[in-house]
Write a structure and sequence with these properties.
The chain is an alpha+beta fold. The chain contains two helices and three strands, in the order βαββα. It is 32% helix and 17% strand. Strands 1-3-2 form a three-stranded antiparallel sheet, with helices on one face. Keywords: Aminotransferase, Transferase.
Length: 72
């Protein structure tokens, strides 16, 4: 048996650079303007307001590269 490609479910917990915006506001803006869906860090407890959780479930290298471009 040989794999067709490497797929998996991974998460990235990243700090957003917008001090004046909540993680919920940043997550909504990313979804609306860049087509990137993520969870606000505030969902994961106190002190997580400057973070976002991104999921890379079954994403290949090309898809991850597109995400990097969308986040810029």
């Amino acid at each position: 048996m040989t794999p067709d490609g490497v797929l998996g479910a991974y998460f990235a917990f990243i700090r957003h650079p917008f001090e004046d915006l909540s993680s919920s506001a940043v997550a909504e803006r990313l979804a609306r303007e860049a087509g990137v869906v993520c969870l606000p860090g505030s969902y994961f407890g106190q002190g997580q307001e400057r973070y976002l959780r991104l999921a890379f479930a079954n994403a290949d290298a090309v898809s991850i590269g597109r995400l990097v471009e969308r986040l810029r």
